[in-house]
Amino acid sequence: MPHLTAFFENVQLPTMPNVARELIATMHDDDIPFEKVRNAIARDPALTAKLIRLANSARFGLPRSVSSLDDAITMVGLNQVRTLALAACTVGLFKDAPGLDATAFWKESMATAGYAQWLARTLGTDLPQSWLAGFLVRLGEFIIAQKAPEQIPAIERLPHHAGGRWEREQALLGFTEAQVTAELARRWNFPEGIVRALDTAGDPLAATPFCRLGAILHVATLLAEIGLEEPMSAADTVRALPADLLSALQLDPAWVETHLPPVAGFVDVSMR
C-alpha cells in the first residue's frame, strides 16, 4: 500500500523493549519455548509485578491468588502470560496524544481483546493470538495522532457509532488505524498471521483469501464500541452487526444474542 508507506515517512516509531522483542521472536517457534519466555519476563521486575496483578484480576477467576511469575504461568498458562506481557509492554510505548481519551482508548482495547478471544473460542481459533490482535488493533491511531494530528478531531467526532471511526479514517486518510497497526506489527516482526488479520480487519469481506482472524477483529471491535459507547440490548447489538460477516464466520445470530457476554467483564483491570 504505497500511500501507507509514505504515511510512515518521518514518523518516530516507538522502540520495543528488549523483553518484548524476545517474546515476539518466540511467536515464530512451532512450540512455545518455556525457558525463553519465562526468563525474558523474569528479567523485568516491573513487568513481572504487573503480570501478577493481572493474573489476580477477576478476569481469570483463579481459585487462589498468584504470588509469583511461576504461579502465573502455571495457573494462567504460558501462552496467555506471554500475550499479557506483550500487551503490557505495548501500553508503555505510547504516551497520551492530544485529542485522544487515553482511558477510553485502553478500555476499548481491552474490550476488543476480550470479545476477540470470546469469538475465537466459539470458532476454534487461537485464543491468546486473537486476544493480542484485538488489543493491538487500535494502536495505529496513536501514529495517526503523531503524523496527522489535525485529523484526530474529525476522526473522533461525536456521536460515535460502531464502525464510524474506520469510515472516517478511510475517507480522510485512505486507510484505517488497523492498517497502520498492521504496518507497525510488520516492522516489529510479529507473525504474518497477526499482521494480515490487522490489515484486513477494517474490511474483512474484501480480503482474498478470507482472513478469519481479521473478521473476528472486525466483529470484536464493533461489539466493544457498542458496549462502551452506545449500550443496547443483545438483540439490537446483533442487528447492528454485518449479517454477511456473521454468515462468513458461520456465526448464528440467535446464538450470539443468547451468549453475548457483557462488556464489563473484559474491562475489569487496567493494563496501564
From TrEMBL:
Highest taxon above the source species: Bacteria
Organism: Paracidovorax anthurii
Protein name, as recorded: HD-like signal output (HDOD) protein
SUPFAM superfamilies linked: HD-domain/PDEase-like
Position of the signal peptide: none
Gene3D superfamilies hit by this protein: Hypothetical protein af1432
Record-annotated HDOD domain positions: 13-204
PANTHER family membership: PTHR33525, RIBONUCLEASE Y
